Amino acid sequence: MILRVLDPTNERKAAGGEPAPRPASLKGKTIGFISNGKEGTAGFFAHLDRMLRDEFGVADVVFRRKANYSAPAAAAIVDEIKNWQAVVTGVGD
Amino acid sequence: MPVQLTSKLYDVDDFAAAQEFYHANGWTDGLPVVPPTPAAVEACLDWALMPPDQLIGIEPVRSQPITAEKLAINAVMAGCLPMHFPIVATAWQALMKEEFLLHGVTSSTGGAALLVIINGPIRLEIGASSTFNALANSDRATAAIGRAMRLALINLLDARPGGIDRSTLGHPGKFSYCVAEDEEDTAWQPLSVARGIPEGVSAVTVMGAMAPRQIMNEWTKDPREILETFAAEMRANQRHYSIYGGNYAIVIPKQLREPIQDAGWTKRDIAEFIHERARIRRAEWAEVGKGAVVRDRGETVHTALESPDHLLVIAAGGPAGGFGAVIAPWFGSKTKAVTAAIGACVDCEPPKR
Fold first, then answer.
1. Which residues does A contribute to its contact with B (CB < 8 Å)?
2. Could you read off the pLDDT of A43-62 as tens digits, one per residue?
3. Alpha-carbon gap: A3 to the closest alpha carbon of chain B (Å)
4. Could you tell me the pLDDT band of residue B348, with boundaries at 50, 70 and 90?
């Protein structure tokens, strides 16, 4: 006997944007950091800041910290992204 | 106009093949599932008077719409009967409220589960048990409803371990975590009424919840002494897990409720007492190995409850035993418990097929 069963997943994908085009080079660019604010991220971002400036010729690094590490970044931070050529964000503990 | 299910259909050879098919696709919690046939899913939707495309809500962070059909498929897989489905649907409406912060609860390394607390007449209709083993496998209804919440998270929001779900440990409540309050054997106001739902209306409360921490005190009838044991467990949680205040739940069984009730204490009195007692100085973190984050704020007092209103007092448990439980929130007030009435559409006709 064949059993006919249904797909339990959300086949309808969430409305979302496409990733922005990747920059060919970081030289002379402004890079934004959005930290989740956890203790362990300070050292990571400080190191990345140095590396981007010294090894990749990045012109400027803008550091922003989320108020709540478990929630999306505030609208004011998201608004700033348009002024940057690349963003580094993610989970840090 | 007939309303059709729109989910993709698959043909499998038999029950065993269905199990392998669902497991292989990552669509389970590791346990066997009830194959969600169109007839079983339609029965859930009919019972709740919901067309398949009814929007239960939109997950606010990822803008993911959740429809009644998809939720019903997962409810069937979890073992829900049609009469359980309105509770699952209402609980999902509640947890998609902004203040619940579902994405954080689900994805955090912190390891929280979704606790569902059921109040009102629907508990009796579905045969939920609030006594023996109340927080565990007490009955079919709460077991299946709690499991449906997790299966839907896995399948509708991709909350798979290592995917969206980044829990370091998690806890067993992530399989199923649902309790019905014992409203018959207490003089206290039901939790839902304390949270603004009219008396006699069925409701669910959802909470981003850690594992239950059991306490025991069988050696006093003094409400203050009994509740001091609960407060001490909350202080322990503040020291060992998270210091920040939020929606804690406490579960009080009959043996501990009776002396508190007999002394004339209401749930409000309990909450006010606990609010005063469940608090620690930040300096205490240094005693449990967390001195590095005390800094110059050692004398700052952190309350487990930001206000007495934040305590969820639940009457439940077997008739004997002085065992209660403290259920801590996932990281303080980042998530708020949400209570919602289970809707009854008095003028609606079931959708025609």
1. 1-12, 14-16, 39, 68, 70-72, 91, 93
2. 889 999 999 999 999 999 99
3. 5
4. very low
Does position B2 have pLDDT exceeding 60, yes or no? no
Are the beta carbons of B103 and A66 closer than 8 angstroms? no
**Torsion angles phi and psi, residue A71, rounded to 5:** -120, 165
The answer to whether the CB atoms of A4 and B65 lie below 8 A apart is no
**Is residue A18 classed as helix, strand or coil in its secondary structure?**
coil
**DSSP annotation string for B218-279:** -S---HHHHHHHHHHHHHHHHHHT--S----EEEE-HHHHHHHHHTT--HHHHHHHHHHHSE
Which 8-state DSSP code applies to residue B333? G
Cα separation, A54 vs A51, whole angstroms: 5
What tokens were used for A19? 């990733």
Element (H, E) at B307: none
Q: Model confidence over A60-89: pLDDT tens digits?
A: 999 999 888 878 889 999 999 999 999 998
Q: Mark yes or no for CB contact A10/B17 under 8 Å.
A: no
